[in-house]
Amino acid sequence: MLHVAHPVRPAVARPARRPLPVRVGWIVAAVVAVVLVAAASVAFGVRAVAWPDVVAGVLGDPGGIAAAAVQKRVPRTALALLVGAALGLSGAVMQGVTRNPLADPGILGVSSGASLAVVVGIAFFGLTSPAAYIWVAIAGAAVAAAFVYAVGSAGRGGATPLKLALAGAASSAAFSALISAVLLPRVDVMDQFRFWQVGGVGGADAARTAQVLPFLAVGALLALVSARGLDTVALGDDVAAGLGARVGRTRLLAAAGGVLLAGAATAAAGPIGFVGLAVPHLCRLLVGPRHRWLLPASALVGAVLLTAADVLGRLVARPAEVDVGIVTALLGAPVFIWIVRRSRVRAL
């Protein structure tokens, strides 16, 4: 009688569950950090603003250059907080859906798909309004996510974390090549697109933030509703199904929320990397792996990271600015390497 040897799964170093007071403490600390970086974003820039002028500008006092600077920075701060929260939350959801510690909107090709859709819209359909960018970017992100999942599901074994990561990396490279192919013959489109492609929140205004807010709210709601289901999916599809979980529905809802968040954030601020990749890992070290705590923590820490990076980009090159996408790339790469080496994460 032949015995089939089942493959032995390698041991995985999972973050330990944290006691409730520790988790609550980190959430409160993250909320405080959000308030502090928001205040710093309003106060610091090419021109430093004293705190009395900050208060006057926030309250709508039209007098003085300082108050005018504050009023200009408030929409920028709001957009940075929203985009950072969306990218952090989207990264945590995508890692939970795919059970892949390397999943994020950039590596899975979602951000590149959104960027390609925006480029095609600008080049061939004459899109110019931010509202049009949002719809086109979300459609491109959804198509890219479906394509990556279809490629990663092909063959034996279905959609494994490794196959999804490889499919996402290959698709992202292909989308980037297509973007270059569309842009190179069109200098006018390249001038319009290149500043958006770097990733930044410098051109934010109240109308732009209001346009993207409903999409981010719906995406966040879908992601948070899926938190309990993602905890069950983390045990494996067979175990989750045995416990009565609807694995397919959970993955569909969570993936829809993650794609909506990533697409809307990309439309508003351009493709910004490393936030969705590094933030969930950091939050697992702080609050543990349970998604009902991980998802809110990832949103808060993502908002802190992106807003702090935007403030740093304004300060290091006065009177010019360094776009936030460049700052997050410079800061995110070494932080992510440190997190992976410290926690030795191989799978979720």
From TrEMBL:
It comes from the Bacteria. It is a multi-pass membrane protein. Keywords: Cell membrane, Membrane, Transmembrane, Transmembrane helix, Transport. The keyword Cytoplasm does not apply. SUPFAM superfamilies: ABC transporter involved in vitamin B12 uptake, BtuC. Pfam families: FecCD. Its main location: membrane. InterPro entries: ABC_BtuC-like, ABC_transptr_permease_BtuC. It is found in: Cell membrane. The chain crosses the membrane at residues 24-44, 77-94, 106-125, 132-152, 164-184, 250-281, 293-316, 322-340. Belongs to the binding-protein-dependent transport system permease family. FecCD subfamily. This is FecCD family ABC transporter permease. The lineage of its organism: Bacteria, Bacillati, Actinomycetota, Actinomycetes, Micrococcales.
